[in-house]
Amino acid sequence: MTLYDRFGRPVTNLRISVTQECNYSCFFCHREGQRFRARLELTPGEIERIVSVASRLGIRKVKLTGGEPTVRGDIIEIVRRIKPYLVDLSMTTNGSRLRELAKPLAKAGLNRVNVSLHSLKPDVYKRITGVDMLETVLEGIEEAVRYLSPVKLNMTVMKGLNEGEIWDMVDFAARTGAILQLIELEAPREVEETGFFRRYFYPLKPVERKLEEMAVEVRERRMHRRKKYFIPTDHGTAEVEVVRAMHNTVFCANCTRLRVTSDGKFKTCLLRNDDLIDFVTALRKGASDSELIDIMRRAVLIREPYWK
Ligand SMILES: Nc1nc2c(ncn2[C@@H]2O[C@H](COP(=O)(O)OP(=O)(O)OP(=O)(O)O)[C@@H](O)[C@H]2O)c(=O)[nH]1
Ligand code: SF4
Ligand code: SF4
Known about the structure:
This protein is of the alpha/beta class. It has a single domain (3-301), classed as Aldolase class I (TIM Barrel, Alpha-Beta Barrel), CATH 3.20.20.70. The protein has helices spanning 44-56, 75-82, 98-108, 122-129, 134-147, 166-176, 189-192, 195-200, 205-214, 249-253, 280-284, 289-301, and strands spanning 3-4, 10-11, 13-17, 61-65, 88-93, 112-116, 152-157, 179-184, 217-220, 227-233, 236-243, 257-260, 265-267, 276-278.
């Protein structure tokens, strides 16, 4: 059984934020759209319960996010508990703890990771993230490529900061054996007119045109209909995916995700905050699976494309 929303979009995967905490302080952080810092965090058992309920609705893909998921001391346990319900379990991380954790995470059942890597220059990396950890992250990426392939490198491209590094990053991805994701800065409608957004927004459409010209092959993913470009470099072929959400109606029309906030609510869209449906209260009061399924159905029914 698959759940569909009113716009005919199937919900096939969950993005579960396991914490709001993070050891970085990236100035553009969206914390998966959770506006307020929550104290409450779901326990590993509660995360397992919601994943098991979701799996009864055909959801077999989960991405763990944050904050930074690896700051949770019980992240290995979370992975170990939920993997049996899933065919694809991935994590989005800043990479700062992958040097030690890539192997145990893989052993616990994690299939793959996406690692934020916005710059290869230590000073720019620090300006963006607030920490001096580029070397540690690069070592972590090496470990990840060994144990958690395919690894994706997430580069959020920002005007005046790292837009000049796109092609170095393409080369780096080919050398490392990772996939590069170029991400356009994104924000809800009310933020896009702010000075902050205007200052850093760097449109990726022209970059995408160049990738198209250079590519030896182009594929399209079902999710968000994102394009993947295969780019020849001196170090082999780089796989480059472009994530452009702003005003992209095709992207939203092909959105198949439901989000789970770190404090136990379903959230239907990264860019909305009027869409939260609490489930942890019911879960803590002993709700049955069918009651939790009903709550999830309600969340799916209020889903709508943000850009339409
Ligand atoms: N608006 C919007 N942006 C998204 C969505 N998914 C991912 N993004 C953007 O893409 C960035 C990277 O996403 P990741 O967490 O690495 O996951 P992903 O690439 O979407 O997922 P996989 O391809 O399955 O690994 C996020 O920080 C967002 O900026 C989405 O559903 N909506
Ligand atoms: S690493 Fe991720 S969660 Fe942490 S501050 Fe940066 S963008 Fe936010
Ligand atoms: S509806 Fe659009 S903006 Fe919202 S989460 Fe889905 S793809 Fe992102």
